[in-house]
Amino acid sequence: MVKWHPTGYRRWISSPTGSVLLLVLLALVGDYSSRGVFAASPLPDQSDVLYHAASVSSIAATRDVDSTYFLPNTTVPTHYSISLRTDIHNDVRTFSAITRIYLTVLAPTDLIVMHVQELNIASVALYRIASTGGNEIWIDSPTYMIDIVREHVTFRTAGMLPLGNYALEVAYTGSMRNYQSGYLVSRYRNEANEWRSVGTTHFQATLARRVFPCYDEPALKATFDLKITHHRAYTAIANMPLAGTEIDPNNREYLVSRFERTPLMSTYLLAFAVTDFKTLRNGQHEIVVRSNAQDDAMYALTVGSTILERLGSYLELSYYDYMPKMTSIAVPDRGTGAMENWGLVTYGEPSLLYSPAVNTYRNRKRVTTVIAHEYAHQWFGDLVSPRSWDFIWLSEGFATLYEYLATRLAEPGDEYWELFSVEVVQRAFLQDANEQIRPINWQAATQAEVSSLFDIIAYQKAGSVLNMFRNVLGESEWRQGLTQYLTDRGYDAATEENLALHLQRAVEGKDILPPTANVRDLLASWTDAPGFPVLNVYRLYRDGMMILSQERFLEQSVLPTGHVWHIPFNYAYESSATFYDLTTAGWLSSRAAKLETPVPDDEWVVFNKQQTGYYRVNYDRRNWDLLAQALMANRNAIHRANRAQLIDDAFNLARADLLDMAVVLRLMRYLRAERDYAPWYAADKVLTYLYDKVRATEHEHAFLVYVDELIEEVYATLSVDTVGQGESTLYKYLRQLITGWACRIGYKDCLERSRAALRKEFLPGQGEPSVAVHPDVRAVVYCYGLQQDSAEEFQLIFQRLMASRNQAERTDLIDALGCARNADSITSLLATIVFSAAPDTTFVYLSEERNRVFQAIYSGGRAPTLALMNVLSDPVSVQQLLAIVGEGTITNAVMNIAQRTNGAEEMARLEMMLTAMNGILPPGTLNNARDTAAARPQWFTTAEGLIVGEFLEHYNLP
Questions:
Q1: Which of 286, 349, 374, 496 is catalytic?
Q2: Catalytic annotation on 260?
Q3: Which sequence spans correspond to the domains of the chain?
Q4: 396 assigned to a ligand binding site
Q5: Backbone phi, psi, residue 748, to 5°
Q6: CATH of domain 532-670
Q7: Which PANTHER family is this protein grouped with (predicted)?
Q8: 22 CB contacts (<8 Å, ≥6 apart)?
Q9: Annotated binding residue 563
């Protein structure tokens, strides 16, 4: 699953009159009301990265779980027969159903316990299934009791049930929601601009129980028969192909769609949808989409078919050997997540739809990798499910790894695998360097505990560790082990031991692991302990001798621990720069060890080639100096992935006081000659961190001179406002990063080109044709083109936003609008949020877009942030916005403003805003914001701050 972003209900304040927002709204609206409508920062961010899990659960090292949340093992399911009726075509948010659960009693009992949530049960009947066949025998109408905390329903029979097979039939009604929980409602506007409602499902992790009583634990697999009664204007789809359609005998305007029986699978993988969408087909591969977005689905139809076929070949297990078809559906206004239901994958539209006319290379990357992620789940998670949620990483970790590897199999020219280290490994490090972090294997019982497991540990860390073992074991043995694992555990569930067993068998007798080692113990050292190590390389400079040691790395320090990781290592050095040989040279399986190497004492050494190992590396000061000199002399002597690793490791080691920050800044000076994206991605995080600290301080000018030194030569090789044929994906990533910094620090050429390109599209000269800005350079051009007083262009971009039906394009346009320096434009944009909640409004925002407006503004620079602060300083405006977007959005905006406050003048302005919000936001929130801003100047009194200031003094010279 690529994690969904939940949405909530919104309320409308009926009288916005008197607010500062209303005073400037007309400046934005212009003559817009007569038009037909459909209801960031340019620097690279994480919005297009599949993280699927935006946060990590912070949990103590050990805990006990409440086992009463688990079902008893006295009965198990074998089959479900579900008949559901829906009136979603009329936007009716309720449904009725009859589910018959076929089960086996394993121990004599008078209680049948399963899961249920918010279902209104009308009747219950229990039948005995004779072992010799024949008709079912009615036994009882059991009573029932619902535990709303544990979400259990206990059916009590009149007498003890002996061992055998039974069927429990339950009739009930349920309700739909408009966020990710059970059977969901989504709305969109069709070609006639009419609102239409459609129904889809989302059951992971513990939400199938919202639609039918069930044994809602992943190991309790069963088969499913499904029938859906719906209006004839709509179509039903499900995991399996349609088996037949009949007219509803009770109402000829309705049809009954009946589907083929599923294979054995977990309850959370059942899925269906009832829509008026169109189906596009490429053999057995289908895309279901609203009719006014069919063109945008063509890319997914083609690339998805290729990914599914290539993954099957790679694993030597064709998908179609297990399932007869694959359907992917694009769900309107459902955020950017996706869910891997077996045979029916659901996506938020930006993760499945791509139009080269309006969408960027980043959107294309999102679509490609999300499809790969969900299709990898068809084997890892669907065919073989985790035995319990404790092992969810066996599903999400593999999917994270193969969302990148599968694109290399299907679309190698896109170079997405090159982003794995920076987007997955380095991102996992940031969250995993927390003393309260959980290990990969982690027990969960309650619904909240289970939900918290879908985090960066299950996705990015697990994917990184799996990739490390892929390299350690070798690609051939790795694939062999996976094929046997999937074959052996197919239609069943698995634990880490099952995986380790088959990987061990694949390497037996091949001299890949140390003689006394086994995969289970090696893997457990990474999955059973929290955090990750730093490998310290201390060179003796005496005939190649080195001392290796390990300790747990934390974001602010290291932590002594009794745990020892089995760390696979390899290394390259100046006269043997074998960065493409990823063979493991040895293992550090103790706290420290002395290593004899052939490395000459006057040459640099780099450990962890291409950063395939999940650990950071620190060196003695002399080796860091040798590396800095080598990069300045010839950056290509060291692999690009390791150049990115060196910057990322050095910066985070310095943040943990394990390295001098001046080493990082000197190391990065080689970037003036860097042309690869990965090192610049790592450097961007350093520069963004430092700019946040020094902006609006005495060190800002020197920092800008330093950045200018780094980017000047690279900027000269890039085009701000045009896209050439044959440009690679990584070139486009690099261009956006570099030109974003160039405009940000005030390059006249960058700002003028952005401004001119923006005007050529929206306000061309007399008799000149409009020239659209290419989507791949739009982020920088639009953002910095709006840095001048450009109210007219701002209004035209807003009108384009309101008219667009492409959700990814809408997000990009919101980010651009948030960059405007014109305060009235920003205030007007916020006013549209208020008016978008009015009945029959012409201002139509999707469910998460109002929140995105706030994010775009406080990320867009100081000028738009000040305009936002002006609005938040008006109590009437705050109360209006609060009622629509909720306290969480306003609180998030306030804290982000506080986190961006530097200097006495900005602090005074912040205090004015917070004072005006007294009685609106809780006192604790306001005080937290004050404390956050007040603490920021303290950085300059730390060793890190003093070292950075001292380094930048060199750049303050006249």
A1: 374
A2: no
A3: 71-276, 386-528, 532-670, 804-938
A4: yes
A5: -60, -40
A6: 2.60.40.1910
A7: AMINOPEPTIDASE, PROTEASE M1 ZINC METALLOPROTEASE
A8: 16, 831, 834
A9: no
